[in-house]
Amino acid sequence: MTQYKSIAESNNFIVLDQYKKFVVEEPNAGYQTEGSLEREFIRDLQAQGYEYLQEINGHDALIKNLRVQLQRLNNVVFSDAEWRRFLEEYLDKPSDSLIEKTRKIHDDYIYDFVFDNGRIQNIYLLDKKNLANNAVQVINQFEQTGSYDNRYDVTILVNGLPLVHIELKKRGVAIREAFNQIHRYSKESFNKENSLFKYIQIFVISNGTDTRYFANTTKRDKNSYDFTMNWATAKNTLIKDLKDFTATFLQKHTLLNVLVNYCVFDVSDTLLIMRPYQIAATERILWKIKSSYQAKNWSNKESGGYIWHTTGSGKTLTSFKAARLATELDFIEKVFFVVDRKDLDYQTMKEYQRFSPDSVNGSESTAGLKRNIEKDDNKIIVTTIQKLNNLMKSEDKLPIYDKQVVFIFDECHRSQFGEAQKNLTRKFKKYYQFGFTGTPIFPTNALGAETTASVFGIELHSYIITDAIRDEKVLKFKVDYNDVRPQFKSIETEKNLEELTKLEKKQAFLQPKRIEQIAQYVLDNFKQKTHRFNAGNNGFNAMFAVSSVDAAKAYYQTFKQLQSAVKNPLKIATIFSFAANEEQDAIGDIVDESFEVEAMNSSAKEFLKSAIDDYNSYFATNYDVDAKSFQNYYRDLAKRVKNKEVDLLIVVGMFLTGFDAPTLNTLFVDKNLRYHGLIQAYSRTNRIYNSTKSFGNIVTFRDLEQDTIDAITLFGKSNTRNIVLEKSYQEYMEGFTDAGVARRGYLEVIAELQERFPDPDVIQTEKDKKDFVKLFGEYLRVENILQNYDEFSALQAFQSLDTSDAKAVEAFKEKYYLTDETFAEMQPIDMPSERSIQNYRSTYNDIRDWLRRQKDGEEKAKSTIDWDDVVFEVDLLKSQEINLDYILELIFEHNKKMKNKAELIDEIRTTIRASLGNRAKESLIVDFINQTDLDSIVDKAGIIESFFQFAQKEQQKEADELISSEGLNIDAAKRYINVSLKRGYASEQGTDLNDALPKMSPLNPQYLTKKQSIFQKIVAFVEKFVGIGGEV
Fold first, then answer.
1. Residue (of 92, 194, 93) closest to 142 by Cα position
2. What pLDDT is attached to residue 150?
3. How far is CA 602 from the centre of its chain?
4. 585 near 447, Cβ under 8 Å?
5. 618-621 LR contacts (CB < 8 Å, sep 24+)
6. Do residues 883 and 947 lie in contact, with contact meaning Cβ atoms separated by under 8 Å?
7. How far apart are CA 930 and CA 213, in angstroms?
């Protein structure tokens, strides 16, 4: 075997400290076809020791090679009959889904196979102990029947199994649209007949200049483009070019390491691949433990260190992975993974219990912890800092004190940390300790002598807020100081800490008038801030951080009273508990609230009980304020906030640190926040979710501008303000330059839209279609951001104001806090009407459908226009989706005004076509209008009810027709259609579709064509009837 030199290695780290880019001197490097990009890529892999199997392009050849590889790896020979049996009972079970196949790679990769002569042997799919023993091969252009030709794709086989799939596009193709394509083709129908491709773990997508990788998971919310990532060095320099990516990520040693050690298959069956900074941190911790052990240098700062990874970048996954891998070092006796009790939400608990079943239980008793330490079978011990501290205080001599142990603190800057630290250094003789933090304590924000570095030692790796924003792993913040209460301005802008304390004591901030004005502002602007514009329940939810329990009480009661007469009031909940007056480690620490509700005074307890009673009546639960029940309330509330069942959550300190809810996009603040506390609280809102969520909205009712800048500067190093904070309203209206790229403002975009495309119905040529899509996409993006600005909602409301009515104008100015000059500035702005935007949306959707038909059909060859650089803003369209009820209510309203059905249908068609989710229901709604006596319907509830009755009858009728005309298997087809309607889309995964097909041999040449045509008909049926209810 030839020896290949590996290109890049240091300390055997797979995330390199430095990497020198390839500089390619090629005469015509500018343009490269997909084919030549692919050939060059395969040559580079061959140079790195991959074997290229040119002859493999079908299922049989793939299986044959797999047999050779597994026989080599396991040093066995299968007879033909044994091999068939091995495939059927284990490796390629017909009923296996993607999840079962993934589980075979991660958990069940060794199989006890009984050979024909009765001998049992372990058959390994991967050698996880000695990575070099696994063979890597590469194949390309795998033949498959399908509607989509010339796929430029390359598959990497490990021991014959396809584990990595690379999709190449030519340079200049928008990578996001290329991602959407993989998504469309591969997720549902990826090599559907060839189930071995369900083993794929990692997708790589590249257009030559930008290369990203992501996990093959069926979780619909985890496979949006936001979850793709670039590879990088340890200094967080991105490695984007395909050649550089190949030399680093696709190094044989690196790739196998990522597959075996740095993928996580979690309790909810989601596959996660760690990001480069997470891997870098884990590697550096393991290196530190090994090198300190070899130097016999432990139990001090040199044998540990801290990891600074910004809030929201997946710290817990990294710290837990480091703990898991540390247990595999043979000289380590135990690894303690120490978390703060309140960070243990239900999900994380289940994750830890999978590795050490009784490691985490909510109890405070140390007996269980002691039992766990004495057990031999689990090396990892997950415990809370509170429990660990109690154990050390109560036990003087434990055998573990003299053994080699690793401590990993998940958030190393918490209330009881100081005391636990002192006990730990006294009791344990041979420890290595590591801390993870999103906001380290530096001399600048330290209150005592201790900083993060003085406790843990050096910083082993950092990934700070500016890195995360640049990589789009967290969002920027938009911070608004809202001085909507002029008479309270002096106290809201007070900066002196002593003065502030006096004001808080006097309850100056709790004046009923101030509370009422703020609460009213929150209610008035809630929909706009959380993007819930339409009747649909899209959009986000919000949190309100207040300064004390008294403030929480005042706000909660004011909201209740202001909403008492409102139809569909916001669901508001609150949670707080006893906060001991402990010493803080750092300026701006959020005071830690314990679960000790008993320690609160009686009025606080009574108020909490009444708020929990309200919660119980919303959700038919029965929580209470005693300690056990309160912990369960805490967990249930966390779950409902994550699921958007709670609209607004009022908190004092709880949930402001460590709580992760991607659906949260707005934080209202009436509390003084600084440094650590400020970044922690703000970071509740900046988790990525989808492209509608463009930043975290922070609305403060005190002037926190300078505090925000101070915190961001401290935790973001240099010129971070521009990176972390969102631009102003003015800039989005008029345009600005960002990192050298000119961004046009809203005014310029709408002017061009109205001038070039006054009537979207007459857009004819393909070039015009493309120009329109690009321009309207630009409109959707800027408008989505402006929706968060109060000035913009005033501008929208201004469009329907009668300016000749002086009284109305005054009321309008008061409502939106406008001066005469800001009001005058609005008048010349010519916004397109709602009706014309609807027409634009409808045309945008039409072109998207047209283009999709083009790509799938024959016309593709005739087109001279290159659509590769166009991205359709699907999420933004969905965010402003109008739901079905809203369309039906419009029919009811319009019918009262116009008695002519043809006009009514024309009017409603535009609305339906502008809505992505309801376009497929157009014929159904039109039939309903034609076949119903609308005048006999008395109210909106009546029209909704009669439509659903009509639609369910149609659904039944069409399902029966479909089943009989295609000769489907009745029971199986009904089962498949019902499951698809419930899920919201039809899928080719699993065997459900095959069961429904008419009897026909899969070998029949007609079989695939027939299957595809039936599948397309069912897809159309499901799109038309999804959400109608009833069974077929």
1. 194
2. 45
3. 41
4. yes
5. 618/571, 618/573, 619/645
6. no
7. 51
Tell me the sheet residues that pair with 542.
648, 666
Instruction: Tell me the residue length of the chain.
Output: 1032
Cα 256 to Cα 98, 159, 249, 322: the distances in Å are: 20, 11, 10, 18
Q: Can you read off the two tokens belonging to residue 932?
A: 């119903």
CA-to-CA distance for 826 and 794, rounded, in angstroms?
9
pLDDT digits (tens, 9 = 90+) for 391-427: 888 888 888 888 999 998 887 765 456 777 888 888 8
- Give strand pairing partners of 204: 166, 213
Sequential DSSP letters for 313-375: S-HHHHHHHHHHHHTTSTT--EEEEEE-GGG--HHHHHHHHHHSTTS--S---SHHHHHHHH-
**Biggest alpha carbon–alpha carbon distance for the chain:** 98
* Residue closest to 204 by CA, chosen among 170, 164, 169: 164
172 neighbors 268 (Cβ within 8 angstroms) = no
Residue 458 is classified by DSSP as S
Residue with token string 């005014």 = 747
Burial class (CB in 10 A: 0-12, 13-18, 19+), 821: exposed
- Residue 664 to residue 660: CA distance in whole angstroms: 9
The answer to whether 476 and 686 are in contact (CB under 8 A) is yes
d(CA 660, CA 680): 11
| pLDDT at position 282 over 90 | yes
Token digits of residue 175: 């990578």
Q: Which two tokens stand for residue 914?
A: 């502008």
Neighbouring CB atoms inside 10 A of 628's CB total 11
Q: Which residues pair with 238 in a beta bridge?
A: 232
Q: At what angle do helices 766-786 and 834-856 cross, to 10 degrees?
A: 130
Of the candidates 774, 778, 779, 814, which has an alpha carbon nearest to the alpha carbon of residue 794? 814
The CA angle 227-233-238, to the nearest 5 degrees, is 50
Among 150, 128, 131, 129, which residue's Cα sits nearest to residue 34? 150
Q: Both tokens of residue 482?
A: 């809202």
DSSP output for 795-854: HHHHTT--TT-HHHHHHHHHHTT--HHHHHHHTT--PPPHHHHHHHHHHHHHHHHHHHHH
pLDDT at 279: 93
612 within 8 A of 629, measured Cβ to Cβ: no
Helix axes 746-756, 766-786, angle to 10 degrees: 150
CB 164 within 8 A of CB 211: no
In contact, 531 and 665? CB cutoff 8 Å? yes
Q: Which of 473, 463, 465 is nearest to 721 (CA)?
A: 465
- pLDDT the model gives residue 588: 64
pLDDT at residue 352, rounded to an integer: 65
Question: What is the Rg, in whole angstroms, of the alpha carbon atoms belonging to the chain?
Answer: 31
Which 3 state secondary structure label does DSSP give 702? coil
Q: For residue 79, report the phi and psi dihedrals to the nearest 5 degrees.
A: -80, 165
Q: Are 542 and 647 in contact (CB under 8 A)?
A: yes
**Residues ≥6 apart with Cβ < 8 Å to 463:** 236, 277, 281, 308, 309, 310, 313
How high is the pLDDT of residue 1005? 75
Tens digit of each residue's pLDDT (9 = 90 or more) over 866-901: 777 777 777 777 666 677 777 888 888 888 887 788
Structure token digits, residue 855: 């790509």
CB 267 within 8 A of CB 351: yes
Nearest of 937, 529, 465 to residue 700 by alpha carbon: 529
Q: Model confidence over 128-140: pLDDT tens digits?
A: 888 889 999 998 8
Model pTM score:
0.78
Closest CA to 569 of 493, 631, 499, 646: 646
